[in-house]
Amino acid sequence: MTTTPLQRWRLLLGEAAEQACGGLGGSAGADGGGDASDGDLAAMDRALAWLYGRDEEQRGRHQHERAAGLGASTLTVPEWVNAVHTLFPKETIERLERDAVERYRIDEIVTNRDVLERLRPNPALLKAVLRSKHLMNPDVLALARALVAEVVRQLIEALATQLTQAFAGVRNRRRRTRVANSRNFDAAATLRANLKHYDPSTKKLFLRNPLFNTRSTRAIERWQLVLLVDQSGSMLGSVIHTAVTAACLYGLPGIRTHLVAFDTNVVDLTGEIDDPVETLMRVQLGGGTDIARAMQYAAELIETPRRAIVVLVSDLYEGGSPSHLLALTQSLVAQGTRVLALAALDEAAEPAFDRALGAQMVERGAEVGAMTPGELAAWLAQKLRR
Fold it and tell me: Which Gene3D superfamilies match (predicted)?
């Protein structure tokens, strides 16, 4: 349905803009030739007030003030989702659902079966499911698991391409292959080999025999990769991407990958590492944080120190012993193990962490930063080829 610019501003600003924007009534007129009825506009305003009126409540005003008698507070979650899917375009629906689950933590968005069946799988909903799975009955949990599986499939599909590129090896210009691939095309050698097919009359060079190089990597001795992931609530995005990354790395030759989740306890998830859906459904968000305990567990797993990498995914707000964590970091580095601490492992890679403790870990030989899963794959490929 079409709305005028003034109507859109009125919907955006709420009842407080009624006088300035002239209300929601009337046709779209010359601006858009729209067809939004007064009832549709009122329903849109009611749906927006139901969600964003919560900001006013947080500022000390009652939620129904913005709704101005339109009954926003009477909507149930299923009614709201139905209204949103009926009244708004796809892009707006996705934004409203994302705000509902991420900004306002409306758990019933994913704990109500009728609602869950209407939602499109996306990372925001995956986070909501993982936060709320303990509230779901078995039927809803089965449906939620299918949503998790679809989002995970999408994430794996995107990361697999990046992993292939990172671990593809370097071009070997001394060896040819019959596998035609644009990344392996040897332009210079192809030109030299086809000069005899140059036609002076047309000034064209015909490529009868294109040449392609193979790609090879140095022989990789068996490596151990230990992924430690902090399962505190603030690390949820990183937990998701760590599980997906671990599943993708698990199938690579020459790498023995471990996946360990921790809070004040340590849970070894390596047995489910090839099933990231099961891994994520086992994660228990929240609780305290004992990073040193997790690092101690990682140290005990290591068989050949100089062929081991420990990747710690945590905001580094240590609830245990910082001095013990620093001592373990120094000991691991001294024996030749590479230690990488990631404050974020997700698509945004925006770090929020204890910078003082991070700096102390750097002083003891660790690397500290934030990466996307693709960047981590490239970093690992570089270290494994040394």
Answer: von Willebrand factor, type A domain
